[in-house]
What we know:
The chain has 436 residues and is α/β, with parallel strands linked by helices. 37% of the residues lie in helices and 17% in strands. It has twelve helices and 17 strands. The strands form five sheets. Strands 4-5-6-9-10-11-12-15 form an eight-stranded parallel barrel. Strands 1-2-3 form a three-stranded antiparallel beta sheet, with no helix packed on it. Strands 7-8 form a two-stranded antiparallel sheet.
Amino acid sequence: MILKYPFLTLLCLLLFVSDSATAQTDRVQVQESEDGWRLFVNDEPIMINGMNWDYFPIGTNYMYSIWNESPEFIMKALDYEMGLLQNMGVNAIRVYTGIPKEWIEYIYDNFGIYTMLNHSFGRYGVDIDGEWMANTEYSDPRVIELLLNEVTEMVEEFKGTRGLLLYLLGNENNYGLFWGGAETEDIPVVDRQSTIRARAMYKLFNKAALSMKAISDDIPIALCNGDLLFLDLIVELVPDVDIFGTNVYRGETFTDLYDQVAEEYGKPVLLTEFGSDAFNVRTNQEDQKMQAHYKRLNWLDIYANAAGLGRAENSIGGFTFQFSDGWWKYGQTVDLDVHNTEASWANAGYHWDYVEGENNMNEEWFGITAKGPTNSEGFYELYPRAAYYVIKEAHKFNPYEPGVTMADLLRHFEGISLEQAILQARRDKGALESER
């Protein structure tokens, strides 16, 4: 093909490259100062008001991927859901690998929402020489090679991506040493054999962090642990991750978690999962007030431990679990079109519906939005619960504003009304249903 205006074409190409390079110069760092740890983007501190986000229409499960849909479908779905997230002050989402680079940039460019890219790091098994290893053995040389190759390839692929905030390795893989499947169970009891396996696993986490940084150190790396189980091994074996990430469910607060990490590990803390379900097993019905109650106090604790406010000063934010209900979580492959109310594990920290000897945590009801039926085009509507509006108000507080004190934080959260949030949720659900 002969170009009629080669100079103009070259100029446009150079301008595109220049604009792209300029747009990809975000510097993301974690820094410790005299008053604690902060995450910085281009030298501006950012408290992560994050959300665990996915897209699963009712009737689908983990086998479904929105990224296999047409670009038009993906764009329409993202515009709807990211608009809701933007409205509530969410500035980052947690997404597993599989999301193409261009959609991370689309979300950031159009909604100002960053992405924490999560590699499961063998949490749900690995394919070794054509055979499925359901419970990953991290000491196996073949596993080591596979996982190191995958995470380094990820860094190569996503290097320079606009809107990429963090890399996250794993998803409470320490619990995966005990659990045979992906469903959530009670917190395991440590034994000698599990400790041996954990040592191999955490050594590999550190090798992965070093391998990733050797390619690019522009994006901080977080580890996703299950609560503080094996923290002593993490301190010993994982010195090179930048952030201690943890999935933690302790009820109204996170008790001594921030203090313990500060004293023993000395890294910034990011809550990669936390929250409450919206189903009360005592009353056997949806309980939006209960969920909103826990979310409000959880976010208060996250901000209270931020730099400059006088407590542990190592909190850099969190990712609420989760945006919308997962109808497939209980059973995983059966009853995908049933909103199951069976609780799958017990947690006494959630006293509103805890009964000794019974499970009270409902995996299919953790969404701060309820999920509507799928229409003929494959889309669904979301119905914000009271927790959505409580978190929206919580996110209006900026712990890094000059002169902000703990008293300011407490006043802000005292002004968040659960009753008003419940009324707002009812009004919005009624309006959506009338439109339909």
